């Protein structure tokens, strides 16, 4: 309930994180008409000139745009969701949504204007957005009832143009509940599939949605990330505000910073390879979502905690190299080296590392005062050890250099 309230608050309060919205018109040869679209650019788009962003295409853009932007704004605020480019297609101004989603009753494939709209999205809209904006390879699509069913058609292609599908209470044409699971089983690329219904949803739609879920749950495809939900107490229309954040958090679960649960259940229990886990986590972001990101400071701290907890101190060397790559001007890399030397008993090198860190830029909760205190504390320990060694060493008796004369009479005196 709290999540729903926050989402509504974000939607009603407008553009809290300085997202930029552009309303534009595309002249489509496929549709033989102009079609209005709304483009939502991420807050950092104008500042971060090298960053590319995942693309989210919204059918029913007239009413889904603000709802998705609200959920995304909330996720951006907590760094739980990546920034994305949202493109919403207008389909309600002239009641286009029904004709845009025309199916052939025999084949279940798009027909008439539905076929034209299908090609408009893949051959005109997406290429235009890619040409004019910095779009990452990862693409998502979302819709409600009629449009939710239509977006499934993109799964029928051998190489689908979308990587993630958000199908909210789809009004499935005949046979689609069997065809979609078959296509999900055949996917060769990483695919996210989310669909849902509600307790108060339309019965004729709900029955077939549940049939699709029953078949999809039997799909054994490691490339598929699948989630189905049925919302208690929700209606056909209110389910949208439940589904949007749930779907986004499913798709971008790997993006989120390392949580307490992830640390305890996936990282701390490893016998080794804590730094590798961190590297792999961000490699998945780049390979699956097209996001090349700087590793978060808090994620470095999580791996540091795992190394200390499991006394795998040698991994600080590898963590230091990773820190130097991500934050070359900061004290983070030398701080980790200092920890390794300190924990393995190489006090002199630990002191030197902390002193080097002192000369670098502060980062996170690491400060110059902290580095100085650590170095001074180790110097004190080193001094105490030397004094203890001196005190524990027993004094030695001096050996005379000249041998004193013997008091025993010589043979010569005896003879006298």
TrEMBL record:
Concerning Gene3D superfamilies, the annotation shows: alpha/beta hydrolase (3.40.50.1820), Tetratricopeptide repeat domain (1.25.40.10)
Superkingdom = Bacteria
Annotated region (Disordered) at 382-416
Q: Which UniProt keywords apply?
A: Hydrolase, Signal, TPR repeat
Q: Does the keyword Flavoprotein apply?
A: no
Q: Does the keyword Isomerase apply?
A: no
Which first-to-last residue range defines the signal peptide? 1-18
Q: Which GO terms describe its molecular function?
A: hydrolase activity
Q: Where are the TPR repeats?
A: 331-364
Tell me which InterPro entries the record gives. AB_hydrolase_fold (IPR029058), Esterase-like (IPR000801), Mycobacterial_A85_antigen (IPR050583), TPR-like_helical_dom_sf (IPR011990), TPR_rpt (IPR019734)
The UniProt entry, under PANTHER family, shows: ENTEROCHELIN ESTERASE-RELATED, FERRI-BACILLIBACTIN ESTERASE BESA
Q: Which named protein is this?
A: Alpha/beta hydrolase
Organism encoding this protein: Flavobacterium rivulicola
């Amino acid at each position: 309930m709290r999540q729903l309230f926050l989402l509504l608050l974000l939607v009603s309060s407008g553009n809290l994180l300085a997202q930029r919205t552009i309303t534009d018109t595309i002249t489509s040869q496929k549709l033989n008409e102009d079609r209005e679209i709304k483009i939502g650019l991420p807050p950092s788009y104008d500042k971060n000139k090298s960053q590319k962003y995942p693309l989210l295409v919204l059918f029913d853009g007239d009413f889904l745009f603000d709802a998705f932007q609200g959920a995304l704004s909330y996720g951006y605020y907590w760094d739980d969701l990546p920034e994305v480019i949202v493109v919403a297609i207008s389909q309600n101004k002239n009641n286009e949504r029904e004709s845009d989603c025309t199916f052939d009753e025999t084949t279940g494939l798009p027909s008439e204007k539905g076929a034209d709209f299908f090609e408009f999205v893949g051959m005109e809209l997406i290429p235009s957005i890619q040409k004019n904006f910095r779009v990452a390879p990862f693409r998502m699509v979302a819709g409600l009832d009629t449009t939710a069913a239509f977006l499934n058609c993109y799964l029928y292609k051998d190489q689908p143009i979308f990587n993630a599908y958000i199908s909210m209470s789809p009004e499935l044409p005949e046979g689609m509940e069997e065809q979609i699971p078959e296509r999900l089983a055949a996917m060769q690329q990483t695919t996210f599939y989310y669909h849902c219904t509600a307790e108060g949803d339309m019965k004729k739609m709900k029955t077939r949605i549940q049939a699709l879920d029953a078949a999809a749950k039997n799909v054994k495809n490691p490339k598929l990330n699948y989630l189905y939900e049925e919302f208690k107490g929700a209606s056909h229309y209110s389910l949208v505000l439940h589904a949007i954040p749930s779907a986004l958090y499913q798709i971008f679960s790997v993006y989120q910073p390392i949580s307490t649960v992830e640390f305890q259940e996936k990282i701390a229990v490893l016998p080794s390879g804590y730094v590798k886990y961190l590297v792999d986590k961000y490699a998945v972001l780049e390979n699956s979502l097209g996001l090349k990101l700087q590793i978060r400071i808090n994620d470095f701290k999580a791996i540091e905690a795992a190394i200390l907890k499991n006394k795998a101190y040698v991994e600080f060397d590898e963590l230091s190299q990773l820190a130097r790559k991500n934050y070359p001007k900061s004290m983070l890399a030398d701080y980790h080296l200092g920890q390794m030397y300190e924990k393995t008993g190489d006090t002199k090198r630990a002191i030197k590392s902390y002193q080097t860190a002192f000369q670098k830029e502060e980062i996170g909760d690491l400060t110059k005062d902290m580095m100085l205190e650590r170095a001074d504390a180790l110097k004190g320990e080193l001094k105490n050890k030397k004094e203890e060694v001196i005190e524990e060493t027993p004094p030695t008796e001096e050996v005379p250099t000249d041998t004193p004369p013997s008091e025993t009479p010589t043979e010569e005196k005896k003879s006298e």
